[in-house]
Amino acid sequence: MIKVAILGYGNIGRAAEEAVKAAPDMELTGIYHHDDCLSCIAGNIDVMIVCTPTREVQKFATVLAARGICTVDSFDIHGQIWSLREAMDAVCTANKTVSILSAGWDPGTDSMIRALLMAMAPKGITYTNFGPGRSMGHTVAAKAIEGVKNALSMTIPLGTGIHRRMVYIELEEGADFKTVEANLLADDYFAHDETHVIPVDSVDALNNVAHGVNLVRSGVSGATHNQRFEFNMEINNPALTGQVMVSCARAAFRMKARGEYGAKTMIELRPIDLLPGSTEQNIKALV
Amino acid sequence: MIKVAILGYGNIGRAAEEAVKAAPDMELTGIYHHDDCLSCIAGNIDVMIVCTPTREVQKFATVLAARGICTVDSFDIHGQIWSLREAMDAVCTANKTVSILSAGWDPGTDSMIRALLMAMAPKGITYTNFGPGRSMGHTVAAKAIEGVKNALSMTIPLGTGIHRRMVYIELEEGADFKTVEANLLADDYFAHDETHVIPVDSVDALNNVAHGVNLVRSGVSGATHNQRFEFNMEINNPALTGQVMVSCARAAFRMKARGEYGAKTMIELRPIDLLPGSTEQNIKALV
User: Fold this and answer.
1) Which domain covers residue A8, as residue numbers?
2) ipTM
3) Does some domain include residue A226?
4) Is the pLDDT of residue A37 over 70?
5) Which of residues 149-178 of A touch B (CB under 8 A)?
6) In chain B, which ranges are continuous DSSP H helix?
7) Can you give the pTM of this predicted structure?
């Protein structure tokens, strides 16, 4: 049994807990809050699933990897993944362990599908269309506008990678909607997309963790144009993220056992390493 | 530059040639007909793309691997892949080389997607719906019926993995359609599916290498049901198969360079190994 623990117990941590409990080859050895003293973490851990806020991932993953514990995170700032990988790779290699970075659905499984489609049709354009679903980054930006008590920013796909933002806001007592709307539309998070601001009595009444993706590629295989590919999903967002992290925990454990130390993103993983069961069972069932 | 050669020059061999020529990191060092004497093959080959009929793959791949040459094939008899892998793995390990087996779209890239969807939602059902497109196996079976001059069997997806067979036949002079139809419908290849037999003046007039897949999974991530996934493609069949084999040739070359000897199916490959360019370039572009 792979000994798995969870650090951080928000939406993703809870979903990861469910996925560990459903895995036939894992046991849950602990759940830690991210304000726990890291030095208190017991030694009985093969893989720590790091479910802290993204900006705290590196701090915790570095300490854990330095102790030789495998880590999995869902770090999601696309532009900073390479530098995180460089930093974590050095720590993991020095301490003979494995970190899997940005394990979720985007970055994550979508990245694997984008890579696979590039291998199938090397020239062409891929569009990743997100939603409908909540954008965490845009929701945080909307909440930071003066006069906003609570907010929810929905991402609506318009095709070819273009998105509409539907921003539902609960105003603070006495705040002026027109002023709040103007400030929000001027914010850099919203200024570049079609954005609609809608006042509501209760943001909580809109709460729903559904999300989706429509990933489309038209490209060229060899000399043959018009090869068309499409991947769609409609999912519970934290449930999928937690599950993908747990599947990656299995891959991290196996890679460490084989001496393949270092930090990896999901496009660097073998799909079979994500699955329980033997090589023979999986090849016979899936290939 | 990776030195790539092609063995077999039918539809797939020609498509592989186009894909090698389009690859920025490969040079084509030879094209061999599968009745060429294997001892005549020049030594200047890193990877041989084996485009012979499926039943001849093992014979040729074994001889090539014994010489330390990497091979890629698109062996497509699902029930025999594991035993082929066992046999080729022994030859490859002994001769410090790499064989990638069943590199096409099914088995192949579909297998990778099925594995990925299992990692995203471990419980549930996946349906792989093929077509519309030609089935080689059913076409060969139809041609073997007495009184059939030429035939084409189309696979039509009806959903949930159920398929209709549309069999177009050109009769031999004096053959009786009703007799041919009855014999065909009684053949084990057709007896278990909804099958329609249609007489035509020219099978050649129907020639089209288009094919497609609709791969659907509904499953459970952690404890959350009703996670829904779908992969669709509409493609030129030999062009995609040839391209996938060429992308796998790159992976074989890299795995051999890292000392990862043996025979592998596509679910055992890292997606990034299929792509030209550096790890940094691909992570920045795709993750």
Assistant:
1) 2-107+238-286
2) 0.96
3) no
4) no
5) none
6) 11-22, 57-66, 81-94, 109-120, 136-143, 177-186, 237-257, 279-286
7) 0.97
